[in-house]
Amino acid sequence: MRKEVFVAEQGVPEDIEYDPYDALAVHVLAVREDGTPLGTGRLLSGEAAAGKTGGDPAVGSLGRLAVMKQARGLGVGAALVRAIEGAARELGLTAVDLHAQTHALGFYERLGYVAYGPEFPDAGIPHQAMRRALRSGDAERSLIN
């Protein structure tokens, strides 16, 4: 799925799409009732996240969020983000950072993420760092909204 979205669609070199952090990450997968995969994402924490979060051990790093073309606009991406945030809470993390492709800033802003720092290139694509603080009541509110 990541290969189709990032490598085939966006031209990210395959040798940088997959990294040693995959083995250390919590992975989430959205599937149809028939088992067809719709989207995926990962959460890094601890030392694995340190380089992406400024070294704060209480902050996780959301990444590699990919939704299949036919599932876009159906809420799959938001559900994946909320699942990753739930995993972050279970690990005792207080915030989640991510590096958003700049075309997706509005998506993440609607989910409560705030941009910070300068824009930067990653795999030749403009990105922006973003963060969302996690509070104990957020999980219940996200289920209602």
Automatic annotation (TrEMBL):
- Keywords, alphabetical: Acyltransferase, Transferase
Instruction: Please name the GO terms that the record assigns under molecular function.
Output: acyltransferase activity, transferring groups other than amino-acyl groups
Q: Where is the N-acetyltransferase domain?
A: 1-135
Q: Which InterPro entries match?
A: Acyl_CoA_acyltransferase, Bact_Acetyltransf, GNAT_dom
Q: Which Gene3D superfamilies match?
A: 3.40.630.30
Question: What PANTHER family does this protein map onto?
Answer: AMINOALKYLPHOSPHONATE N-ACETYLTRANSFERASE-RELATED, AMINOALKYLPHOSPHONATE N-ACETYLTRANSFERASE-RELATED-RELATED
Protein's name according to its UniProt entry: Acetyltransferase
**What is the native source organism of this protein?**
Streptomyces poonensis
